[in-house]
């Protein structure tokens, strides 16, 4: 193994696999290693037996849950925005040929104990029971403004420079009420807290536009798509891509140790007495624990049910966002549900996840509002994990460390992290100006 590579990637989590695929396409010489004997790392998909082994030890799953192999339970469940960055990356790299996707049935938001379909256009705003009559009209005007907004067309700006105007000032201009701001900010723009209200409105407007454009790509009830057989398919698809372009994969490599020179720069990785040399190292936080800091903790309930989530029009797949203010919290609660319709469970079974950032010393109680929405639960597993963020300076030590996965049920934050690492390694932005009209081949 005593060879020289441009990049060694440690860990086969989704972020690491996307990155090794992108770097291989750029003709960099990539070695990808993992201490596990399976793909996916922290973002793997598990069969029922694997899920029970991980969380219940020697206990066997109840026979009533059905066939072990028909389950593909994501450890980090996330949907993809149909017009979003990850889909652009998939098309840019042609990974779509290894995957099949299907639209997600519904996107809902929680308000005062009930859930409502998220309106994303002026037409939907007028129909939405989320708002009273006058508020519907104000929201409609806001959505028309967002739909028509083009940065290079000043006539669409209505005299506002969105890179200077704060988001709360834009909402004030349209007279939008607090409850409406809540669902626009959290369920459409997918902000994780309310800091965005004091930031330039441009980012929020572009995120709401992305939501509406993604919704328009399908006749479905949501802007999201999701791969058949679960997210575990994604790391494997990018691994295949990397291999096609000459990338080398080694699984089940114990004790992968990053080697440094006298100046503190990473120069390679040693495993089983052999060292592979490289100019740059990419890894998840578990491989370089002394170069990361803890930034939070996620709590997640994994629930197996025999029915869809109530009040979602029997949606076979759905996202529900519970904005923080509705729950007197600092962070949102996310509900994700998928089923046999995406081949992640046997027929008649549904897998729901409720997740959030931990804020108290009783994490499970923080999920209660989300769990109440699910109806009867056959089996429930509670999992918590700590989130880490790199604190190193990549230009000084040649180490590019991904952030731990956050509790969001969409991919926007994940891909931003990947693209930032890509730029750090290659010195260039990834060109994602792809024509999405050719993307339907892998969509069901």
β content, as a range? Answer: 15-25%
Q: How many domains make up the coordinates?
A: 3
Query: What is the gyration radius calculated from CA atoms?
Result: 22 Å
Q: Portion of residues in helices?
A: 25-40%
CATH superfamily of the largest domain: Guanine Nucleotide Dissociation Inhibitor, domain 2
Please report the distance between the alpha carbons of the first and last residues.
Answer: 42 Å
Q: Using the 3D structure, state the CATH architecture of the largest domain.
A: 2-Layer Sandwich
Number of strands: 19
The residue ranges in which pLDDT falls below 50 over 5 or more consecutive positions are 438-444
What is the count of helical runs? 12
Q: The CATH topology of the largest domain, please? A: Guanine Nucleotide Dissociation Inhibitor, domain 2
Structural class: alpha/beta
Mean pLDDT: 92
Query: What's the story with the biggest beta sheet?
Result: 7 strands, mixed
Q: What's the CATH class label of the largest domain?
A: Alpha Beta
Assign an overall shape.
globular
Family: Belongs to the Rab GDI family.
Pfam family, one: GDI
Function: Regulates the GDP/GTP exchange reaction of most RAB proteins by inhibiting the dissociation of GDP from them, and the subsequent binding of GTP.
Protein name: Guanosine nucleotide diphosphate dissociation inhibitor
